[in-house]
Amino acid sequence: MSRAYVASVGMTQVGEHWRKSLLDLMVEASLQAMNACPSIVPDRVIVGNMFSGAGSNQEQLGAYLASQLNLVGVPAYKVEGACGSGGAAVHNGYLSVKADESEAVLVCGVEKMKDLDVGRATAALAMADSAEYTQFVGATFISLNALTHAMYVKKHGVAKEEMAGFPVLGHRNAASARHSMFKRPITVEDVIRSPIISDPIRLMDSSPICDGAAALLIVNERKAKELGDVMVEVAASEVAANLFTIYERPDPLDYVATRAAAGRALAKAGVKIGQVDFIEVHDAFSVTAALALESMGVSGPGQAPKDVTKGRFNLDGELPINTFGGLKGRGHPVGATGVYQVAEAYLQVSGKAERNQVKGAKVGMTHNMGGVDTTTSVHILRREG
Amino acid sequence: MSRAYVASVGMTQVGEHWRKSLLDLMVEASLQAMNACPSIVPDRVIVGNMFSGAGSNQEQLGAYLASQLNLVGVPAYKVEGACGSGGAAVHNGYLSVKADESEAVLVCGVEKMKDLDVGRATAALAMADSAEYTQFVGATFISLNALTHAMYVKKHGVAKEEMAGFPVLGHRNAASARHSMFKRPITVEDVIRSPIISDPIRLMDSSPICDGAAALLIVNERKAKELGDVMVEVAASEVAANLFTIYERPDPLDYVATRAAAGRALAKAGVKIGQVDFIEVHDAFSVTAALALESMGVSGPGQAPKDVTKGRFNLDGELPINTFGGLKGRGHPVGATGVYQVAEAYLQVSGKAERNQVKGAKVGMTHNMGGVDTTTSVHILRREG
Predict the structure, then answer these.
(1) How many helices and strands (H and E) does chain A possess?
(2) CATH topology of B4-116+210-232 equal to that of B124-206+234-379?
(3) Does A63 contact B244 at a Cβ distance shorter than 8 Å?
(4) What is the 3-state composition of chain B as percent helix, strand, coil, each rounded to the nearest 5?
(5) Facing A80 at nearest CB: one of B80, B127, B244
(6) Which DSSP string corresponds to A162-180?
(7) What is the CATH T-level fold of the domain B4-116+210-232, as seen in this structure?
(8) Catalytic annotation on B156?
(9) In 10 A of CB B198, how many CB atoms?
(10) Rounded distance, CA B18 to CA B261, Å?
């Protein structure tokens, strides 16, 4: 049984890629990762994606990508867990190396959302929740999160200026990142004056509809050593499911899957949360960042917005989060996001994060959710030596 | 690193399940498998499915099923490889046991096709091929297979009466199977007089549009021994991708992915093709059965239709195939098919195949394809002792 390492990463800029297809995006990110390690030929291709079928009439993305890269004969398939598809795909790459069934896995996350108008994109995202009930009654993915946002604010008396700390942080970090969608820092005023899209969630609380692809080469220990580069281990890879929809849960503000996945990941990696140097957290909305950080024990109940406002999560703060902008700033091409996060964590712990470098970062954690904490994955990356 | 075993299986009857939802079907099959081993609580849920998104506006099936089974906290996700989704899902269950990341995995394949009219179902199946080119020019999944059927007949001079041997065999075996869709044996005359749906493919050469779900519990060696039942090992699990579309391939009649997956699986299991007691082969169309059997070396080029006509593949023949009817007779709920096949192989090697029992079956092989041999998986099940 081998340990798994990230050997290289590739990312398209997140944005509105009107002139690039699903395949173009996957190939661009994958070739970046592969060209960084020309001696390695992937022996498996795993694609993370949520709605290429409903959105682009395209399935079988695993073989589609493998074929385009001329990797005939390798295992190839797509892994889906709504907006958590990317993290679940990375998990599968990790599994196949750990099982000694692969030496070098190409994991690629991709989503092409902008080809859909807002109504269709909203409908596609709502597929993360039950068609029979949640979609039927007209709830959308945004409105479910708006319910938790309202509950959260009511329970803890959080000011909207404090919640605004998350998008402000995201845009600030994104401004200096190569692959991010948004390059303009925003202020608390910008957030609280932005239009409400599902009360109380405002436009600037929400990650954007966008296109993008990210890729990783995950290799076994032998291959990683051969490369002679810095060794970045996938020290833990955990996925956890929650009760499917928020109205089934005893406490919708308790991200049970986040807590389970983060707890198991920290235990497997032998790391305490205080030893993590930064976290890429799933800020699909401001409230999801707050609830995730609180459910994994980073902040006390109702405290995460205060922590972000006080600067605790800044790049030079005690525990930086979303170091390249997170879902709000870098962008959230849903099925790709979990792969972007792990790629970003790799850049941080290997010291390749350029202007977004967290000084001395050695251990990083990523947190990716499908639905409202319904399929949640947590990865811990650790630099050896 | 543990070996992987099939502990139990569950299958809905394949058919037209107008009154059962995707979730109903998954739960029915899963509870059958789980109730057969009440001492086992799955620690992972993997769903194989092709087009729940485009077909039923439903994604995140992994967590959907896990939640309904009250398996909160376990890893859960969907695996997709078009009509090969089921086999790819089984492969992932195998990987997670082999990686010692799971002790008991629930793998469920499901597809609900009948809710779509024929046009929409045809469009959904066409997502297995390129939206940008193949779908754009109006080719369907059936017409691609019709091209290979025409090439095959021309190259080898196969009579349509010989090709008809596959559906005749499928219906004969399905007639005595509990979970099959079709219960009426058919004749060669029935096949060659049935309407042409994409020249030269006739209605009776084609597997049906249908609904169904199948489930497996895949456990590690320790759990399998605890159960004290017959030990059925997943002796090999291989997935292989081919060049994406048939017009890119040097020889469209050479199922390269089938050959690769079968070759590797036999090598890993340490079994020669002549030692396999039966094969569940992906007869989406008569021609795919023929080409698959020839590509895996069971029949010589152009010989498979003659072999089936001569009775070589009958239940009491030299090498039985599609022992419960295959895709044509049992039915082909696409993302579920690969799981049905492995469940059927389990029934055979464990001696639980009732009226469809292959006498003395100990080693069985299953073959599941997404697209035209684009994402192909091969599993070998072997009874120990």
Answers:
(1) 15, 11
(2) yes
(3) yes
(4) 40, 20, 40
(5) B80
(6) HHTHHHHHHHHHHHT-TT-
(7) Peroxisomal Thiolase; Chain A, domain 1 (3.40.47)
(8) no
(9) 21
(10) 36
Secondary structure (3-state) at B331 = coil
Report, as an integer, the average pLDDT of A336-357: 98
- The backbone torsions φ and ψ at residue A62, rounded to the nearest 5 degrees and listed phi first, read -60, -55
**Cβ B339 vs Cβ B197: under 8 Å:** no
CA dist., res. A89 & res. A60, Å (int): 14
Whether CATH 3.40.47.10 fits B124-206+234-379: yes
How would you class B31 by CB atoms within 10 Å of its CB: exposed for 0-12, middle for 13-18, buried for 19 or more? middle
pLDDT at B385 over 90: no
Nearest residue in A to B242, CA atom:
A72
Nearest CA in chain B to A255: B73
Q: Which of B17, B37, B83, B149 is catalytic?
A: B83
Mean pLDDT across chain A: 97
Kindly state the average pLDDT of the residues A5-9: 98
Taking the CA of residue B54 and the nearest CA in chain A, the distance in Å comes to: 4
- The verdict on a CB contact (< 8 Å) between A57 and B131 is yes
- CATH of A124-208+233-383, picked from 1.10.760.10, 3.40.47.10, 3.30.457.10, 2.170.150.40, is 3.40.47.10
Helices B286-295, B256-269: axis angle to 10 degrees equals 50
pLDDT tens digits for A24-54?
A: 999 999 999 999 999 999 999 999 999 999 9
Domain boundaries, chain B: 4-116+210-232, 124-206+234-379
Contact criterion met (CB below 8 Å) for B267 and B237: no
Q: How many whole angstroms separate alpha carbon A217 and alpha carbon A229?
A: 13
With vertex at residue A261, the alpha carbon angle to CA A255 and CA A262, rounded to the nearest 5 degrees, is: 85
CB burial readout A16-39, b (16+ within 10 A) else e: bbeebbbbbbbbbbbebbbeebee
Q: For chain A, give percent helix, strand, coil, nearest 5.
A: 40, 20, 40
pLDDT of residue A377: 98
Answer whether B217's CB lies under 8 Å from B42's CB.
Answer: yes
Q: In this model, does residue A1 exceed pLDDT 90?
A: no
Residue B62's Cβ-side half-sphere holds a number of Cα atoms within 13 Å equal to 38
pLDDT for B1 beyond 90: no
Q: Best interface-test mutation with B: which of A49, A51, A59 has the largest number of B CBs within 10 A?
A: A59
Rounded CA separation A352/A124 (Å): 35
Are residues B338 and B377 in contact, defined by beta-carbon separation less than 8 angstroms?
A: yes
Q: Does the pLDDT at position A385 exceed 90?
A: no
Chain B positions in Cβ-Cβ contact with residue A84 (cut-off 8 Å): 60, 77
Residue tagged active-site, from A37, A83, A108, A210: A83
Whole-number percent of chain A with pLDDT over 70: 100
The answer to whether B12 and B25 have CB atoms below 8 angstroms apart is: yes
User: What pLDDT is stored for residue B189 in this prediction?
Assistant: 98
Query: How many other C-beta atoms lie within 10 A of the C-beta of residue B155?
Result: 12
Q: Can you tell me the mean pLDDT for B230-250?
A: 97
